[in-house]
Design brief:
- The protein is mainly α.
- It has six helices and two strands.
- Strands 1-2 form a two-stranded antiparallel ribbon.
- Strand 1 and strand 2 form a beta hairpin.
- The protein is elongated and about 60 Å long.
Length: 170
């Protein structure tokens, strides 16, 4: 029986291999989307009273969802015979604990999502501290925590999607 750590390493490698094989190199475009997502998160969290805040929030949500759903959709689906299939159905007849597999897939997904938003959050705090030291103002506001909020939102959305895929395989 595989441990959780071994299962995480194995699933991460398989996901990357499936993504390379099935997307025929298109996934590099979605890596660019994730870079735009990170920079837009940083722009939103900078202290400024501009009229583009609503546009940037929509941009973050759609770009983040679009890129994350493509890049990490291979955790819960696989392409067979030209169609995407629920990957948990493949594991139904293999001697693996489905709950442990689901946990490993969710850990991989949340780790990648957090690694995308963490640089933006760190830079947002640094820029906010610089802004407070030079111009004054208050430290805590909602825009400072947009990277954390959007990361939590995406983790929740994809947890629900993967959970529904797991329940459909039973």
């Amino acid at each position: 029986m595989l441990t959780l750590k071994q299962l995480i390493i194995k699933e991460n490698a398989e996901m990357k291999e499936r993504r390379k094989k099935e997307s025929i190199g298109c996934y590099y475009i979605f890596y660019l989307f994730t870079i735009f997502y990170t920079f837009t998160l940083l722009i939103i969290s900078l202290p400024e009273d501009g009229s583009l805040d609503k546009f940037f929030i929509y941009h973050v949500l759609w770009t983040g969802y679009f890129s994350i759903s493509f890049l990490y959709g291979y955790l819960y689906k696989v392409k067979e015979n030209g169609k995407f299939q629920n990957i948990f159905i493949k594991y139904k007849f293999i001697p693996v604990d489905i709950n442990k597999l689901f946990l490993a897939k969710f850990i991989i997904l949340s780790r990648h999502i957090i690694l995308q938003a963490l640089p933006a959050q760190i830079l947002a705090v640094i820029f906010k501290l610089i802004y407070i030291c030079t111009d004054g103002g208050k430290f805590l506001d909602i825009f400072l925590f947009i990277p954390v909020i959007s990361s939590f939102l995406f983790c929740l959305i994809f947890f629900i999607i993967m959970y529904q895929a797991k329940q459909a395989a039973k």
